[in-house]
User: Fold this.
Amino acid sequence: MNILTPFEYFAPATLDEALELLATKENAKVLAGGTDLMVQLKEKMIHPVNVIDITHVPELNEFKCEEGQGAVLGACTTDAFCEFSEELKAKFPAFAYAAGEIGGPQVREMGTIGGNLANSGPSAETPASLICYRAQLVLASKNGERTIPVEDFITGNRKNCLEAGEIIKTIILPEPAANTFVKYGYVGMRSSMEIDIANMCIRLDVEDGEIKDAMCVMGSVAIKPLISEAVPAALIGTKVGDEEAIKAAAEAAQSEVHPITDVRASAAYRVDVIGALCRRLLRELAAEIN
Amino acid sequence: MKKQIVTLNINGEDMDLRIAPMDVLADVLRKEAGLTGTKKGCGQGDCGACTVIIDGKAVLSCLTLAIACQGKKITTIEGIADQKTGEMNPIQKAFLNHGAVQCGFCTPGMIMSSYNLLTRNPQPTRADIRRALSGNLCRCTGYLLIFEAVEACAAEGGVL
Assistant:
């Protein structure tokens, strides 16, 4: 009945205990929900000798979202928690929406935001919106803590800057300004249990109907989330909802992506989807703002 | 890796089971606890056939390590019927009455997801039901009758 390669299982009860285990147990993998790790174990993609389940650690399950204080999420906050949190839906709607579009309902009850980030899959749902909201990660190891922006965390296809013995401890979302608007969208083969063909998140900072600053992050079109330079250039200084600017932004986004063809979509279709997503999100943002 | 005796609370009963660290809950339920109502479909977290409820959340027992379930309350398809009389839960009756079962392999998972939905949201819309069951695949293409069974159960007083 057993199809997994044997390993030892540890369920530390405190952060210190978890970091001590990570520092001392050789060939260890972190279990933070298991919706990716268990599949990788079953597929024999990884062969850990030790599995350290961090989901029981109280510090990794904390959640704070107070008025004017942004939000602080422990790494083991589940996708479903973020999907249903009224505080997050009000303050960070694009992130709550992205979390609610991961896998299916059961996957979202198990999967965690820290796990989704640490897995660093190119088609992951949460990084684009977290980058647009300027989220920071607190990384912890036995040697101490460091804080880095989410955009610097993911370095490649399933690669990130976590060092040996280090885990994501906390996701920090700064309070968004009142004139900041963010939207996330994706295209997949079906509406649930799919892996994105492409996804995108756009942030606009608006004053008197004019775009003062913008950010566009694209997922599933490169080895890591792609932060556009050309889309903000096409949008800053234009009026929200200006169709010429929207078309220019979509073409700008398309000019920057060089996706691959794989089982989910051809490269050419992905480029089309990026243009469509950009137009759709900018029109939705215009409808919300104007 | 040696098996150890681990106590799991399944359907309200503490069961001492032989478990190795890498055993997934779906296998332990079926092979050690003798509860074969929970089905293993894809074994990859894609199909939802293995759905059980742990501490009030519908999760996938094929991606859950059994050893990680110590101290938690596990409810399987066998646990939602009346434990004394054996009478089926209203959601089980609704599936039967509405012909929401074809080959039956997805049914335990469908029922556990439906049960969990009705526990949290006793009057779901069709959209709520579709979303709650979006992680459960039926390959006989019986979704419509399943949605109707859940709606009928809600209209007739729910699952509790």
Notes: Chain A has a mean pLDDT of 96. The first strand of chain A starts at residue 8 and ends at 10. Chain A has three domains: 8-53, 58-173, 180-289. The CA atoms of residues 144 and 166 of chain A lie 9 Å apart.
